[in-house]
Amino acid sequence: MPRVGLFVIENVRAVDPSRSLDETVDVVVEKGRIHALGPGAGTEARSSENATVLDGSGKWLLPGFVDLHAHLREPGHEYKEDVESGLRAAAAGGYSDVCVMPNTNPVNDTRAITDMLVSRAKDAGGTRLHPIGAITVGQNGHELTEMAELRDGGCVGVSDDGKCVMSSAVMRRALEYAKNFDIPVIQHAEDHDLTRGAQMHEGAVSEKLGLRGWPRVAEDIIVARDLILAEYVAARYHVAHISTHGAVRLVSEAKNRGIPVTCEVTPHHLLLTDESVLGYQTACKVNPPLREAVDVAAIKKALADGTIDAIATDHAPHSPLEKDCEFDAASPGLMGLELCFGLLLELVRNRDITLERFVDALSTAPAKIAGIERPTLEEGSSASFTLVDPERRWTAERGTLHTKSTNTPFLGREILGKVLLTLAGGDVAYDMDGAIS
Ligand code: DOR
Questions:
Q1: Model pTM greater than 0.85?
Q2: Among 314, 321, 327, 334, which is best to mutate for testing ligand 1, by the most ligand atoms less than 8 A from CB?
């Protein structure tokens, strides 16, 4: 990955919630570090003949995004995505850091797989990869993994994502064990007994389509149980892809009582409802399923007030083999790394959330949950930031994306807001217009 010598972005709106910064500034980057940031800070550097100067007017400079939840499919399903293509997609989406789920084949339940991922990511360069190890061996739900080894290899959390830890006893032990290493246990909250054979959210639409429904309570019951356990053992608990108004209420009450819980929401659960499934749209089949307007309203409000800490993509690439088929046979999941920022900017435009909260949920809050170095616009820090144009119109089309997959209902939709440049740890991970590389 290229590391550029000296460049200046002039007159850019810099927003960094971790420093309560929202100001039009110049930023000077030298040898991968933020050398200076402030009004007029670029004057001296711009006169150097080695400096590349970018006009930042109308653009925003934000701390690099951190995704808590992506599936990069390596090892095992590289035809859908691999570490290299996934990290390129992440960089194009503005991510300086991405945490990858362990439901690969084999599952990332050992130090060997963790080491392999870390080494593959080093070779790829650019966006940094942080593995999430499995909670149980082979995600079998019974036998705990060697979390100490996983953590020593670089795992920032544990999860059996795609599957729920159904046993209360195993979940209790997982929370107790993970607490020793101060890593969160990330739960895929789904009572599988209540969702057997389910294809979509249980409600009027599932009835109309004749598809077996997946009730909200399947999520709520697990979240309620886990919160009781997290309180009992005083351990960090994180709810993946929260989707129901009931689960949001439970998390809110738990936070008010001081239970160490955090949670994340995906772009699709914020933007779509179960009505999108009408016509048996397999692109909208996802786990947890798209819910109803009442849930979307509750999660938007919870994101705005911080009850929901982070936005996570749940980037879940699948090929046409798994999606161009009958609804029952289709795999659940949507890809999302490249689209998340542009799609969700609409929430800021509609004043559902403030820009500050949006950036916090994309960057600062998830970095804290993962316990990784927080991307920041602080002078002296290594440059991990993203430059975006909130007014650039573009369309996500086949052949123009960096991910190997195209499973999203947003394909062909015009999006307002585009990532132009991403730096990760001082390296240029993405440079859309070739402005500095
Ligand atoms: O829709 C989903 N797809 N939800 C998950 O939890 C797993 C993911 C996948 O791995 O495809």
A1: yes
A2: 314
